Amino acid sequence: MVSSTEYGSHTWDLLLTVDHQHEDVGKEISLQVTGDLHVGGLMLKLVEKIEIAQDWSDYAFWWEQKKCWLLKTHWTLDKCGVQADAKLIFTTQHKMLRLRLPSMKTVRLKVSFSSMVFRAVSDICKMLNIRRSEELSLLKQSEGTLKKKKKKDKNSKEPATEDILNLSNSPVSSGLPANPGLYSKTMTPVYDPVSGSPASSTITWFSDGSLAEQNCSILALSHPTCSPEMLAEMYQPRTLADKAKLNAGWLDSSRSLMEQGVLEEDQLLLRFKYYTFFDLNPKYDAVRINQIYEQARWAILLEEIDCTEEEMLIFAALQAQYHVSKLSLSSETQDSTCESEVDEVEAALSNLEVTLEGGNKSNILEDITDIPKLADNLKLVRPKKLALKAIKTYWFVFRDTSISYFKNKESAQGEPIEKLNLKGCEVVPDVNVAAKKFGIKLLIPVADGMNEVYLRCDNEDQYARWMAACVLASKGRTMADSSYQPEVQKILSFLQMKNWTMCSQAASEPENVDMKPECFVSPRYTKKFKSKQLTARILEAHQNVSQMSLVEAKLRFIQAWQSLPEFGLSYYIVRFKGSKKDDVLGVSYNRLIRIDMATGDPITTWRFSNMKQWNVNWEIRQVAIEFDQNVSIAFTCLSADCKIIHEYIGGYIFLSTRSKDHNETLDEELFHKLTGGQE
């Protein structure tokens, strides 16, 4: 018989597992508890029973069946839903994790497995001296991208331990609070104007970071040499479907690592997820700039983004500049840099600063008083059947965000032959500097898809002015916008870089230079040219960048990468509502693009600026988006979880709210509101 007192107490046995390192103490402990006991009280009872004198402050309960942490210590077991069959593990919240950086360097550090990934990435970036952590996230390599590597690695051993940078003793990684002044704008760091890496005194920026003990410059330095064998072992996407696999493994920023099946000592990729590199500043961003450069470099080498032969040689020349400079520096002792050299480099880099949308918007009143226009003779190319093209010269007038064209200059006062509204269109460069071809491909949205129009300019200056106007018009801006002139200069600078690849200057003899050209270009171009030919062409182009500092060469590389038509597009295989076939959806910082999976041609573009709302039906995993003018789309994602696309859209909208006028603190609540969803 059970007494009424015992029966009324509602006590029951709860079996708990303690994750500790003491071999002489059992790991499974049974406690008698009641439903009204709060989680904090359960922790106290457990620690008292264990009788091990150690710091338990980082420990919390992990509920194995529900895959969740019990972090609200004031909640009762009843409120949490914990019953006698619950498997609770008392374990540390901070655990060791291996992260492969964009530079392919692996770091081992202690990360919070109980915080949301967004917060965990923020802490990681503080340890690595990377500002603007909201641009990065953690990526789990999908099975499709590992198959090739696994086959090749069957007989290979684990990477040597010296290749891993161990940051396990960082105060931040141990769960201690970071210095709130990490990103103070009053910092006066000193950096090496040649390598772009922080000088020793710069370590004081992040006094809490463990890189101070581990030589913090290591992550700001590039190691461009990689063997063709190493490239061959890595996953190289051949089709849009292959590229979609690259973006399938992004972790959910609103859930913890443990909740997403990540285990201690697992390896994840730390990558720039959002291609909006805001407020890049060489003074403070040596590591950040190098990691962006490395992510761009590997994207080029592995053909994750397409580029022409001219463009590939530009990228090769800029990498060669880094390689050749390193060779010359290794034979000389570096003297301490005087202040004038630092000022000179800062002045050179001021024109290369990369911002979210480009341009300073402080002169808006001046901009709107006079909206300029362009008027010139251009060739109009219209594709026709049987691969024939009709090319004819017309008088074109660019005003506001529209292009009108007339038979000739004299008839410009009358009605135009056609008026093209470029707002929301796709603008694709069609340039071959060697062949003196300066074309602009416009894909203008119409009711049943995209209307293709080609404009052909006579020279570089004309092309730069019209191309810049088209790019701004596609975003709904006019030439009065303060970003117009910088855009023109950026295009001219890129064309100038393309000129390097065909210059007639005498290059160094390839035999006299210790260079492996296969390390600077993608395998496609390695197969196309012999090694000596490739070396000669790279050195020829390199003559024009030989005077650049290394940090300037990196920023030029990033700028050239941003100029590629496919820059910033993340691909997913989707099925649109009402469609009978799969399509590819490209997600960019300002638009969504529906792409034909077979041909790779854009079908329709939707701008975020025209978006009214978006939501997810979690039951059928369908994303639905409403735009202006009663345009609605809905699709299911086949290559990844629909939450990833939902987070991409919300994340880009969140990043567009950033401003230099605000302090460095992020509105984390707004981020989760825009990206979290309600499952």
UniProtKB/TrEMBL annotation:
PROSITE patterns: FERM_1, PH_DOMAIN
CC annotations in GO: cell projection; focal adhesion
One Pfam family of this chain: Kindlin_2_N
Gene Ontology BP annotations: cell-matrix adhesion; integrin-mediated signaling pathway
Cellular compartments annotated: Cell junction; Cell projection
Keywords in alphabetical order: Cell adhesion, Cell junction, Cell projection
Cited CDD domains: FERM_B-lobe (cd14473), FERM_C_fermitin (cd13205), PH_fermitin (cd01237)
Annotated stretches, region: Disordered: 147-170
PH domain ranges (all copies): 379-475
GO-annotated molecular function: integrin binding
Similarity-based family: Belongs to the kindlin family.
Protein's name in the database: FERM1 protein
Gene: Fermt1
